[in-house]
Design goal:
globular; 4-stranded antiparallel β-sheet; 55% helix; alpha+beta
Length: 382
């Protein structure tokens, strides 16, 4: 964790120096540029070239894209209904049957260093990049499918967080048919769902179905076991979720089998102890379950990093796909439902009331779930 914090400090310093140099050396060019901008800890690059890429992809098979975008509308509607139902049902569980609350009821925002351990930052950066690029890319592709003009596309870097965007012509979108608007609004979450499902398929095909031990993430300085060693067994007992907290009786010695060799500890008298406690006594502070790949990579740390990268990609993909379809202002769900409602109701006052009601109701559900999560489980980080 200290290494990550130090990295962030160095990165912030590099950002500041680069910003000052660029602003001093190319200030006039930047001020006159419509496609490039740099600000403290934020850089943005716009381009119209991706629009031509979208057009080429769409022209490849317009009928196929139409079918997919229509499926996207149904999927987005289902995701939206699931999101609202989940939050409402989850809140009911917290209020009426708190004894049934478990891990599946946890709802937290993603805030690096607050709700998410900072050591997960590299995985999150990769996940956000994949999710945002595919999300915005599908928005742009379907917009061009519906012949909605796009001002520009581009990429940005907000401190260390990469992202992408698509900027449609507002008038073109406003004048588009209701079906076209629904297709565009649904496209982003549909793309995220597909990415999530693809990653799940990768899990099923690239990793063994069973856990083969625990991988060590943190140890004391004097521990013989080192970070990213995999502990397979203790005195012949394999380590997995079913056995980790199991008691075993040790008579004279402890043999810990790891990926870097066996470690033997002699004891003075017989003792009955949990396997997890034995690892703590051996200087192991933090672990995670280890599932190797079928590729049989030689480095357990590399295999674990690959697994965690995919895990975060699927988590963020499914999370964005579902909660992005909530009818809350700034989310695609808001655009989806308002496009649908505006096709039936023309009175601006009624539209505004319905708009505010949807946003307030769903925002209230979301915040209530977060509050009850921390009230029930206390402060914790993933």
């Amino acid at each position: 964790m200290e290494a990550v914090v130090l990295y962030l400090i160095y990165f912030a310093a590099a950002w500041s120096i680069a910003y000052l140099i660029v602003k001093w050396r190319w200030r006039k060019s930047i001020e006159n540029s419509k496609n490039f901008g740099i600000y403290p800890f934020f850089i943005i690059v716009k381009s119209e070239k991706m629009v031509r890429v979208f057009d080429k992809l769409v022209s490849f098979n317009r009928r196929l894209w139409k079918i997919l975008s229509n499926i996207g509308i149904l999927v987005a509607l289902g995701l939206s209904m699931f999101a609202v139902f989940y939050l409402a049902d989850n809140l009911k569980t917290y209020l009426l049957t708190p004894q049934e609350v478990g891990v599946a009821n946890i709802v937290i925002p993603i805030i690096i260093g607050v709700t998410i351990r900072i050591e997960h930052l590299p995985y999150l950066l990769l996940a956000f990049m994949i999710v945002l690029v595919t999300h915005e890319g599908m928005h742009g592709l379907v917009a061009r499918l519906e012949k909605i003009k796009i001002k520009s596309t581009g990429f940005f870097l907000a401190f260390i967080f990469p992202g992408g965007f698509v900027e449609p012509e507002e008038e073109d979108f406003k004048n588009a048919s209701t079906l076209s608007k629904l297709r565009v609004a649904a496209a982003g979450s549909f793309a995220n769902l597909l990415v999530g499902l693809l990653v799940v398929l990768m899990f099923l095909t690239l990793f063994t179905p069973s856990i083969s031990g625990v991988i060590v993430l943190e140890t004391t300085e004097d521990s013989l076991i080192k970070p990213y060693d995999v502990v397979y067994s203790v005195n012949g007992y394999p380590l997995n979720p079913e056995t980790l907290f199991q008691n075993i009786t040790i008579r004279d010695k402890i043999v810990i089998e790891t990926s870097s060799g066996n470690y033997t500890y002699h004891i003075s008298k017989p003792v009955t102890i949990q396997l997890a406690h034995i690892l703590r006594e051996a200087g192991v502070i933090r672990i995670d379950y280890f599932r190797p790949t079928v590729l049989k990579l030689s480095d357990p740390g590399l295999e674990y990093s690959f697994f965690r990268s995919l895990w975060w990609v699927q988590l963020i993909s499914f999370g964005v796909a579902i909660f992005n379809m909530l009818p809350i202002k700034i989310l695609d769900g808001h655009l989806f439902y308002m496009s649908l409602i505006q096709s039936k109701i023309k009175n601006s006052k009624i539209l505004k009331i319905l708009d505010n009601m949807l946003t307030i109701t769903c925002t209230g559900l979301l915040i209530s779930n977060i509050v009850f999560t921390y009230k029930t489980f206390g402060f914790f980080q993933l």
